[in-house]
Amino acid sequence: MRYGVIGMGAIGGFYGAKLAHAGKEVHFLSHSDYQYVKERGLQVDSCDGSFHLPHVNAYGAASDMPKCDVVLIGLKTVNNRLLPELLPPLLKEDTLVVLIQNGIGVEEDVQKMFPEVQLAAGLAFICSAKTEPGKVNHQCYGYINIGNYSCKQQEKIDEVVNDFRQAGVDANEVEYLEARWKKAVWNMPFNGMTVALNTQTDILLQHPSTLQLIKDQMMEVIEAAQACGVKNIDETFAEKMIYNTVHMTPYSPSMKLDFEFKRPMEIDYLYTRPIEEARKAGYRMKKLEMLEAELRFLDLRQRTSE
Amino acid sequence: MRYGVIGMGAIGGFYGAKLAHAGKEVHFLSHSDYQYVKERGLQVDSCDGSFHLPHVNAYGAASDMPKCDVVLIGLKTVNNRLLPELLPPLLKEDTLVVLIQNGIGVEEDVQKMFPEVQLAAGLAFICSAKTEPGKVNHQCYGYINIGNYSCKQQEKIDEVVNDFRQAGVDANEVEYLEARWKKAVWNMPFNGMTVALNTQTDILLQHPSTLQLIKDQMMEVIEAAQACGVKNIDETFAEKMIYNTVHMTPYSPSMKLDFEFKRPMEIDYLYTRPIEEARKAGYRMKKLEMLEAELRFLDLRQRTSE
Fold first, then answer.
1. Which of chain A's termini has less CB crowding within 10 Å, N or C?
2. Predicted local confidence at residue B167, as pLDDT
3. B119: how many CB neighbours lie within 10 A of its CB?
């Protein structure tokens, strides 16, 4: 199978490099450092063992790339508006596109852009960062869940999962909608609250008032998920997420990093869409509505003060 | 009538000085600048006409003060724990104590400290600040509403209202509980949100996301008030408050000033108590619960980082 990777950042760079390192054919599209990587290769500093790829198929334009069996999307969702330009050159009749992205509603919107394309959700549980040109820093975790959204070829999903496993990445197939909402249980409270209060995951859990608030927000996501038809989720899942986070290395979620580096935040798919989906299903996520409003305010202030 | 004023800050200093300027007998208790005021008098720089009081009855200890017919409390509620020490020397059998303070539940708690004392709520609508020793800066507004809480002498309430009017202060008697909740409609959104987002009233109303959030929070207060038995309040009151604020000079509410000057914030009576009262009456103020949690976090961080 031939893999294409759109976006050679913390996500696309890591998972693409792992596949290439295992001998898979991988072609990377990179806006910023394809030239650097083409000349000097890609370095992955990883808690699971660092490695260097001396020869990387890196491209600066999608039109130069070959058609692929599987395309991994490693863009931030704020850049999905570029997909109508970036994705078509890589597509053939049965290409599977895996959206390794955050949030709720991503697949629906991409499917509207490409009604015929087979889509899957990729849910990455990883702490990684693109620290400099040609270098990905993988701090911890790294497993990926794949949820079938509109792929008619089950064997292709299986093959992607197997390829990841062969590449040393813990991969599993999961139910798409349940997986998206379960990830939102962690993402919605921690991404926004670390921005709104300019803090870190561990400090939020050390203060009784914000610990309770995080729990309340997680319960809002769980009740929203239930309203949207996800059955296999309840309060114990929130407790597990909080327990895991207390025992995690303190870190800044992706939205916190985006805000710190004055990049646009993924408010649309991390907040607005799940809030809308829940509201359509008759449930109001009131505390997360407030968080969304605060984030919109902070985002606009940051962009207009420059 | 002899007036006592506990707290010679932006509130007690202003209203006490207005009464004294009109020839009433007023005795001030001041922690910080009684000596300065005793020697050099009290200056009021006011949009309604500035004036100077050369001779002021200022005291540094309550035990030196005479018994009073009316005591105005101009302390921040965070200092109400001092009342059992400060108030008794001023009390005689029929003293009326007017709590010119913010929040919900203040009268209940002070009544518990002094079960026999006659209490009234004083609701000040004023922009004023104590800028330096012996000087109060009154920027705009200034009217005061008096709500009877446990005063058995209606004529005493009337007399206080009349004395204020004679002193050039627009004063009116109002229904206590309704007035407290109506003031909370403005106070709860604007005090906390200007702190949480480090901004001003006008900027909150310029952003569509925070304008909607302020409206939602005002509706939470209105629905809480209704649940607590206040009938004469509905959505039009929120619209009027927003309209008035849009046309107000942008300014920092008292909690914002407290936070900026690293003073403790009045979270208990401005947030915790109304949230509790509403919850007891079966209504959850969810966005304001979240704001309370954020304020507790910010308050604790500020106090522990020093």
1. C
2. 98
3. 21
Percent of chain B exceeding pLDDT 70 equals: 100
Rounded Cα distance between B165 and B142, Å, is 12
Is B262 noted as a catalytic residue in this protein? Answer: no
Provide, as residue numbers in chain A, all residues whose Cβ is less than 8 Å from the Cβ of B299.
none
Rounded CA separation A181/A237 (Å): 11
- For each of the domains in chain A, give its residue range(s) and CATH number, in order of start: 2-174 (3.40.50.720), 178-304 (1.10.1040.10)
Q: What are phi and psi of A185, to 5 degrees?
A: -60, -35
Greater pLDDT, B305 or B246 = B246
* Tokens 């197939």, located at residue: A173
**Side chain identity, residue B84:** P
SS3 of residue B16 by DSSP: helix
Sign of CA dihedral B108, B112, B117, B122: negative
Q: Which residues of A touch B291 (CB under 8 A)?
A: 290
Task: Decide if A188 contacts A270 (C-beta within 8 A).
Answer: yes
Rounded to an integer, the average pLDDT of B128-156 is 95
For an interface test with A, the pick among B218, B287, B294, B301 (most A C-beta atoms closer than 10 Å) comes out as B294
pTM, whole model, 2 decimals?
A: 0.93
From CA A267, how far away is CA A251, in angstroms rounded? 19
Per residue in B67-85, pLDDT (tens digit) is: 999 999 999 999 999 999 9
Closest approach of chain A CAs to the CA of B137, in angstroms?
A: 31
Q: What's the gap between Cα B216 and its chain centre?
A: 24
State which residue of chain A sits closest to B292, comparing Cα positions. A209
Tell me which DSSP letter residue B92 carries. Answer: -
Task: List per-block mean pLDDT (blocks of 10 residues) for chain A, which spans 306 residues.
Answer: 97 98 98 94 97 98 98 97 98 98 97 98 93 93 97 98 98 97 97 97 96 98 98 95 90 91 96 98 98 97 83
Q: Is A204 helix (H, G, I), strand (E, B) or coil?
A: helix
Contacts of B44 (CB under 8 A, 6+ apart): B13, B14, B17, B18, B21, B50, B51, B52, B53, B135, B136, B138
Specify the pLDDT at position A57. 98
B210 CB neighbours in chain A (<8 A) are 293-294, 296-297
Q: What is the mean pLDDT of residues B241-258?
A: 90
Q: Please, what is the average pLDDT of chain B?
A: 96
Using DSSP bridges, classify how beta strands B57-59 and B70-73 pair: parallel, antiparallel or unpaired.
unpaired
Please tell me the distance from the alpha carbon of residue B56 to that of residue B21, in angstroms, as a whole number.
10
CA torsion, ordered A238, A240, A245, A246, to nearest 10 deg: 110
Q: Provide the residue type at B162 as one letter.
A: N
CA pair distance B144, B164, nearest whole angstrom: 9
Residue A6, amino acid = I
Is B306 a residue whose pLDDT tops 70?
no
